Amino acid sequence: MAALGASAPQGLRGVAAGPRQERAGAGGLALLGAAPGAPSCPHGPALLFAKMNQGEEEGRRFYACSACRDRKDCNFFQWEDEKVSETRLAAREEYNRNHQPAFTHRQNVERYENFLLLPLSKRKFCQECQQLLLPDEWEKHYGHQVLCDISTAQLKSPSQLLYPLENKKTNAQYLFADRSCQFLLDLIIALGFRRVLSVGTPRLHEMIQSKASQEEDFSVRSLLLDIDFRYSQFYTEDEFCHYNMFNHYFFGGEAAHETCRQFFHQDKGERVIMVTDPPFGGLVEALAFSFKKLMAMWRQTKKEGHNNQEMPMFWIFPYFFESRILEFFPSFSMMDYQVDYDNHALYKHGKTGRRQSPVRIFTNITPSMIVLPVEEGYRFCTICQRYVSSGNQHCEICNSCTSKDGRRWKHCALCNKCVKPSWFHCNNCNCCALQEHACERTEAGCFVCGKAGHKRSTCPSLSVTKTACQTDKKKRQKTPKKVKMGICKRSAMKHAIFSRKRMKNKKKKCSLPY
């Protein structure tokens, strides 16, 4: 097969950008976002980037995969001005076809219906292929690790049946713990929402679907948008859409678009909320671009006069992305609730100090309406008019509960803000930082000569320093070599003396009478 793309610049794997250009430093990369007529890879339309060289105002543009930041996962690359031959286009189309799922969503729905008709003894699931098996397919999976006697309860909990995908940058599936999942659902119901657009939150969707099938008076409905097509084996077209949240791409085409639009229609006054839990390795501007597109779809279903409204939303992300999220959604605020996950070693609730989960809920809903569980140590701050964690003490100078990570922060008079308890004010940097940190003032100069105005790579003293370093290196290498040779000689001499003594003793023994 012909090569599918030229070599991509190092340091980037495709991540979606917003409609604006992201600033890039000298020799960096700029994100230009989605472009009309962009070429496609198995993950949908590629996104446009620019490689910025030092001293250039405009870099050369290229397309890269929207979802994968590692070339091992998807190696798609194409310069924007590159002329692609018919042979390469045909090879690319064939490659994209070969990397699509074996069954369509409709076929998976039909297979699921047939699977339900099977007796328990004939319900099998291939763990290696992550596929429900019908009897005529058993032979093809001979030798694979297969689960038998798949119950209806297991089919209603596919997130526990499927292996979680754990690529942090593309499709990481760190699944909500029951505590967090139940809290989110209870909060959604308490706020009066009856329709949940679950973007990358399969476990929340699963809980809603399960309760809807078991409880007659349960009125909440959910639509799952996820890049993991394996879920199409368990949900109908009205319950699941194959979706890439990095480029707002519906793999099911216009039919899937229409499914999402129909879900936004508020029947009998039902309110819609979007809950999303993206991979933490994805860039915020990429996600914000897609989420704004979904909000635009929601606004189209509203009556006139509501065009400026935002769809209610819970964006679940680490607290240290707060400034980036607020840059795109200024109306959002961060809640203190710690979201924890079943299959993540660090993001667990109940840990103390820096080991606490850093994942929070960002929302455009009024903070005072978000009631956090008092039994877990959350309390209501009457001044801030929101629930905060027990360690988040109100600062009278900042006039806010300033802690982000659950610990009690301290106020720095010089910085005029609260900082982490482990930080100290650095007079060189003129700001607070960890006690053992590299000062910005020191880093402002050249690393080689210490002078300002140039970097290490262009330092005029670099060649002199490099020669001196090489000379020192040779000296260092010679010394251990001599020592090593001396040790070897001494060892050889000792061995020879020992051998001669052995031979003499052997001769003496041979001359002795028996």
Overall helicity: 25-40%
- Helix/strand-derived category reads alpha+beta
Q: Which residues sit in consecutive blocks of at least 5 with pLDDT less than 50? A: 1-27, 453-457, 462-476, 506-514
Percent of sequence in beta strands: 15-25%
- Please state the average pLDDT score: 79
Report the biggest beta sheet as strand number plus sense, adding barrel if it closes.
8 strands, mixed
Function: rRNA N6-methyltransferase that specifically methylates the adenine in position 4220 of 28S rRNA. N6-methylation of adenine(4220) in 28S rRNA is required for translation.
InterPro entries: DNA_methylase_N6_adenine_CS, Mlase_EEF1AKMT1/ZCCHC4, ZCCHC4, Znf_CCHC, Znf_GRF
Subcellular location: Cytoplasm; Nucleus, Nucleolus
Domain CCHC-type: 446-461
Describe, in plain words, how this protein is organized in 3D.
- The protein is 29% helix and 18% strand.
- By secondary structure, it is α+β, with helices and mostly antiparallel strands.
- The strands form eight sheets. It has an eight-stranded mixed beta sheet with strand order 13-12-11-10-14-15-17-16, sandwiched between helices. Strands 1-4-5-6 form a four-stranded antiparallel beta sheet, with no helix packed on it.
- Helix 5 packs across helix 6 (202-214).
- The longest helix is centred in the C-terminal third of the chain and has 50 residues, at 462-511.
- The chain is globular, with a radius of gyration of 31 Å.
